[in-house]
Amino acid sequence: MLMAGPGGRLGPRGFLTEEEKANMPKVTKELLLRILSYLKPYWLQFLLVFAAILLSAAVGLLPSIITGRIVDEALVGRNMELLIQLLLMAFVTLAVSEVIGVLESYINAWISQRIIFDMKNEMYDHLQHMPHSFFTSEKQGDIITRMNTDISGVSSVISGTLTSIVSNLATVVTTLVALFSMSWQLAIVGIIVIPLLILPTKSVGQTRWQLLNESQAKNDEMNQLINETLSVSGSLLVKLFTRERKEYRRFVQVNEEVTQLALKEQRSGKWFRVVMGMFTQIGPLLIYFAGGLLIIRNLDNSLTVGTITATVALINRLYRPVQSLLNLHVDFTRSMALFTRIFDYFDKENPIKTKTAGLRPNMKKAQIDFEHVAFSYQEDKPLLTDIHFTVPGGQMFAIVGPSGSGKSTVVNLIPRLYDVQSGKVSVAGADVRDIDLRYLRSAIGVVTQDSYLFNGTILDNLLYANEKASMDEVIAACKTANIYDFIQNQPEGFDTVVGNRGLKLSGGEKQRLSIARVILKNPKILILDEATSALDSISESSIQDALEYMMEGRTSIVIAHRLSTILKADRILVVKDGVIAEQGTHDELLEKDGVYRELYETQFRQILELEEDKNEDK
Q1: Are residues 111 and 159 in the same domain?
Q2: Are residues 212 and 12 in contact, defined by beta-carbon separation less than 8 angstroms?
Q3: Backbone angles phi, psi at 575, to 5 degrees
Q4: 86 with 308: CB under 8 angstroms?
Q5: What does pTM read for this prediction?
Q6: What is the pLDDT of residue 415?
Q7: What is the DSSP letter of 41?
């Protein structure tokens, strides 16, 4: 049986993978208590499950014991009436055992799903409040795995590991008590056979695991080859370089190796089942031999044929739970590893927190101050070293600079997507770290270069900014952003589904929707980070009035690459080498013959000339 190791490759039950061994969690009292804290709310249901398991284990003995009575009393005694009664009793006990099992499974599943429900809610809430840096550093696949796969795996821990331990222990204890109460001699004979079942299982299981591991590696190689050569780009490359024959030979070779490994694994599995089938019969045969010897030689006058039959049935009931208990350390290790991975995310702290009594200053025409701000994503690579400037309330500042100079990072410090490492960012005279975080962000509207839309309707995405907005307000915002005509031309109108990340729309359409969304938010402070980069000159000019309308009376910071936008700024900030290298108006900065003039000569003027040429052509 294969069992998924948390976050790793599939491994056989009874064996830990090399990855699992290397990442074996440290089991502490604190870890166990933390796990139990999730089980505690459902302690009553757990008691019912354990009671059902114990009752099922006890009732499960009865069919074997009744079998002994059938042989001794009904068959030997030639009592048909008693035979029918005993058969009915055996049927009833089997039915009761099954009903108890269904009840136990139902309660167990309910507990598992409720714990998963609680943990997913807690994890989602926790991740929602993690800083932006968490999502830029963590892989999205890892986040989804922790949220879904790992937490869902808790179900197998509770319904599998935990209850199976109790169930197996109950089965073993009750079976041993019954065996020794009927015949201690036969009980010992049956127990002696157990190592004969366990040792081959361990040995053959290890061999099969090695073969499976090799087979998985080869399958990965085959999948990689298929993915590379049969993808759109890969197949095009193969055709252009006429490498069809070479790639076919590679595939045949890998496919042959996968096939041979699969055959080896299947052969080992069949011989294993043959050997195990033989060993499982040794126990009953030895019991029949020992029982026959005791009866024939009159060594135990109390022993009957029915007792021997019942002992054989009970011994067969004992083997599987004993084997499961011997694998307990593997199941326990995997369970602890699973919880450790989940708790690792829960323990990630959010450094960007709102104060209990956060400030709520008046944000209308709020002044923005950067006071000797330093920031870096990596300690050994400073990005901003001494950013110092003031944006007076109600004015519009433009930020320009070479690629990678930290322009976006500067504006991201205002809504506290990141916190400064030294210095201070203030809005309306208050340090942003002292302002209520929700209040601060609700007062800031941001339009980024990468306009993100959820996979819903156009209306859903617009109302994300303001759920209480009326339809008239939505239409007005769309008209202002020059996107209303496009929406009206869609068959579904505002109910048009935009697709994952808005892929069904063009870049310009997505950006205009983002602008309309910010208009609906009606923020006090506006940040435009390359907000018109995905628009052509015609589209940009058509919504420039909308942007100017939005910026009127608002404190605004614009990161732009188009000179037409930069020229409208009250002041231009030039970021280079972690500082504000220059600041002033367009004419003032050109006269300085510095960084801005270099940017103007290499970037802005070229873009301006291209736009003028396009306009002349039209």
Answers
A1: yes
A2: yes
A3: -100, 130
A4: no
A5: 0.70
A6: 92
A7: G
Q: What is the pLDDT of residues 267-295, one digit of tens each?
A: 765 666 666 666 667 777 888 888 888 88
433: domain CATH number? Answer: 3.40.50.300
CA distance 556 to 148: 40
Q: Return d(Cα 572, Cα 555) in angstroms, integer.
A: 14
Contact 31, 25 (CB under 8 A): yes
Give the per-residue pLDDT at 498: 85
Burial (Cβ within 10 Å: 0-12, 13-18, ≥19) of residue 102 = exposed
> 286: Cβ–Cβ under 8 A, 6 or more apart, which residues?
189, 190, 192, 193
For the segment 355-360, the average pLDDT, to the nearest whole number, is: 87
Q: In this structure, are residues 388 and 372 in contact, taking their beta carbons and an 8 Å threshold? A: yes
Query: Which 8-state DSSP code applies to residue 492?
Result: T
Query: Do 179 and 197 reside in the same domain of the chain?
Result: no
Is the same domain home to 174 and 251?
no
Domain that includes residue 390, residue range = 364-443+557-618
Same-domain pairing of 48 and 172: yes
| Position 454 in a domain | no
| AA letter at 565 | T
Q: Are residues 307 and 295 in the same domain?
A: no
Whole-angstrom distance, CA of residue 309 vs CA of residue 90: 15
Same domain flag for 210 and 102: no
Regarding whether 176 and 161 lie in a shared domain, the answer is yes
Phi, psi of 362 (to 5 degrees): -70, 120
Whichever domain contains 31, its CATH number is: 1.20.1560.10
At 351, which amino acid appears? Answer: P
Q: Cβ contacts of residue 209 below 8 Å, gap of 6+? A: 11, 12, 15
DSSP state of 76: T
